[in-house]
Amino acid sequence: MINTGKRIFSVDDLSDGEISRLFFASRNINSLWQHRAKKNEEAVLMTAFFEPSTRTRLSFEMAAHRLGVRILSFHAGSSSMSKGENEDETINNLLALKPNILVIRQSKKLDSQGFINNDESAIINGGDGTNEHPTQALLDCFTLLNYFKADNLAGKQVAIVGDVLHSRVAHSNIKLMARLGASISLIAPNIFKMTNCRGPIQQLSAYEEINEEIDVVMCIRTQKERLNGLCFDESDFYKNYGLTIDRFLKLGKQCIVLHPGPMNLGVEIDQVVARHPRSLINQQVQNGVLVRAALLDYCLA
Ligand code: NCD
Question: Looking at ligand 1, which atom is closest to the CA of residue 126?
Answer without folding.
Answer: 7
